[in-house]
Amino acid sequence: MTADKTDDLAAALFSEIFMADQLARNRLSKVLPKGMELSHFSVLNHLARVSDERTPAQLAKSFHVTRGAMTNTLTRLEWAGHVHIRPDWDDARRKFVSISPAGRAARDAALQAIAPVLTSVVRALGSDRVRAVLPVLREIRLQMEGD
């Protein structure tokens, strides 16, 4: 394949990925419970899945955002009672974040709200096609993380 054809293919691929990302974020944001943002759900979902405390720096790295952006999200989640933030007893400069029972309930409610949107897409495409594309999308993510 020539360089021009490869460039066109790359542009088409990432154009579709960016558009799908934008549309998915827009649709999911509309069905999330009142007051919850996609970033809030993402952090709550992550904390619920890892079932362990994380530092704000670890969370920022996991989500590929700045520490400031993560601090903003965590401040809002703490204010809502969805996370507990405690100091590190060995290093007062560091903090640990964990999901609260209210945060787990909020995450579960959000998951219930977005599930119909997500499953409708999978049903429309077909499970086999979704399973087939997942390794490719995962590899794209890993390639992008490596840069």
How would you describe the overall organization of this protein?
The protein is mainly α. It has a single domain (32-146), classed as Winged helix-like DNA-binding domain superfamily/Winged helix DNA-binding domain (Arc Repressor Mutant, subunit A). 73% of the residues lie in helices and 7% in strands. A two-stranded antiparallel ribbon has the order 1-2. Strand 1 and strand 2 (95-99) form a beta hairpin.
Q: Topology, please?
A:
Layout: H1 3-31, H2 38-50, H3 56-63, H4 67-79, E1 83-87, E2 95-99, H5 101-125, H6 127-146
Antiparallel strand pairs: 1-2
Descriptive key words:
two-stranded antiparallel sheet, 6 helices, Arc Repressor Mutant, subunit A, 7% strand, 2 strands, 147 residues, single chain, mainly alpha
Number of individual domains: 1
Rg over CA atoms: 18 Å
Unreliable runs: none
Mean pLDDT: 94
Give the CATH H-level superfamily.
Answer: Winged helix-like DNA-binding domain superfamily/Winged helix DNA-binding domain
Class inferred from helices and paired strands: mainly alpha
- Topology pattern, helix = H, strand = E: HHHHEEHH
**CATH uppermost class:** Mainly Alpha
Q: Whole-Å distance between the termini?
A: 23 Å
Second rung of CATH, namely the architecture: Orthogonal Bundle
CATH third-level topology: Arc Repressor Mutant, subunit A
How do the strands of the widest beta sheet line up side by side?
Answer: 1-2
Q: Count of DSSP E strands?
A: 2
Helix content: over 70%
Strand content: 5-15%
Largest sheet: 2 strands, antiparallel
Global outline:
globular
> Helical stretch count?
6
